[in-house]
Amino acid sequence: MSMDFAPPKYAQVMTAIQQRIRDGEYAPGTMLPSETQLVREFGVGRTTVVRALQTLAMQGWIEREHGRGSFVKGRPEAPADRVRPGLTATEHGETAESIVSVERVPAPRHIAHLLGVDERTPVIARQRLTKQGERVSAVETFWFPLEVALGTDLDKPDPLRHGVRQHLQAVKHLRFDHVTERLAARKPTKEEADILGSTSPVLGVLATVHDAAGSVLFALSLALPGELHELEDVYSVR
Amino acid sequence: MSMDFAPPKYAQVMTAIQQRIRDGEYAPGTMLPSETQLVREFGVGRTTVVRALQTLAMQGWIEREHGRGSFVKGRPEAPADRVRPGLTATEHGETAESIVSVERVPAPRHIAHLLGVDERTPVIARQRLTKQGERVSAVETFWFPLEVALGTDLDKPDPLRHGVRQHLQAVKHLRFDHVTERLAARKPTKEEADILGSTSPVLGVLATVHDAAGSVLFALSLALPGELHELEDVYSVR
DNA sequence: CTCGGTTGCTTGTCCGGACGAGCGGCGAGG
DNA sequence: CCTCGCCGCTCGTCCGGACAAGCAACCGAG
Questions:
Q1: Is Transcription regulation one of the keywords (chains A, B) (predicted)?
Q2: Does the beta-carbon distance from A177 to B237 stay under 8 Å?
């Protein structure tokens, strides 16, 4: 009788209590059975029950009051984090027709500023597009410092099958730590307008990707046409 | 000898270890002393040391690997949450000259949809502007269902000194629970363009404010000119 | 040299017991 | 009637011990 991979007992107790809250057996606002009662019911030690209750409290299922009891708060809502256009772009694979151009160019001022280099320092500009059906739905430009692109395929016009993030991780063991995004409405540049086939306003996203030390690995700039992109964000204000 | 309010021992152990990480005594990547060693050093039981280590791991200070040891990750960074234009607008106070108009109007389609009512249902439209110096920097329109505005000053053109959120909380005991924001680039409407004195692209924010039951309390629509507003967001991708 | 078992260190989980402290009801005394 | 102290219930914290399991290094057999 080998129950392979039986979850730890405190997790079993947690799951049981969560189920009862979902089922309405333990209604919000009501008091849970006392620790002693739960010990008897589940046939485990109090340490185990307490661990389960503490974890449930930390996850927002219940509230514990010293000397009174544990009280049901309800199903905790996941903080439904928002869309991260900057990160998403680094994870998308490429196809032959999605590549617009891959060039070595002098860094424009705003990009040089983001990368922390002098204006007109040579950098690799890798421009791609994404499609929804036949329509071009976004223009993405990556800006890599030469020392980052060195030894990678980022400066070659061949499509990266698994995206920029995987490529940098696999080839140069670079790990992303955090991303800074700056978001504003603007008119598309002439070049973007040509590719998009429209001059209507775009959501401009300027992102920098950093390593654990906080250094900028590279920058990217997205043009998301307003008619096609809506970023949704739900947040708690309790 | 009364040590008033001595913190629990596991918290003392946590604080000591945090201090050593901050001081560099325990450098990132290195292994912490084993639980047994910490038990000896601090003169507490292993349960206490384990509680301290588990809590530190949950807060992101260390990582624990079964059978290997506990390893320092570093000072955990607060997840620097992003700007919430929708919420901010509900918290700003008003002045006499910031009010553009307060009218009872039939709900336009997209607003009716957000509020969950039929098109052209009468609602209160409260339009305001914000300034940076002399320049109008944003146009904010609140859309209140009549039953929400009932008994409040929201349908009166007098400035709300402490903002919409405080007013609804104080007068009708309505508590905000969460906000849903939809964000896109668009052209300003004719009306917004007149007020802003510009037709350049704006960041359009459509937000709904919900109570704990998930019902929509009201909606608001912001027009933030792209040249003046940049939303910044930093997030971890580890 | 290579392979596989043994051994020792580490964390993961669990138990049963212990004492303290917050809270609320109840009854005795004012 | 009100007040105050006692008591029982609850959670908060802590201990020492126990066994399982992951991992790495060592060592002998082949």
A1: yes
A2: yes
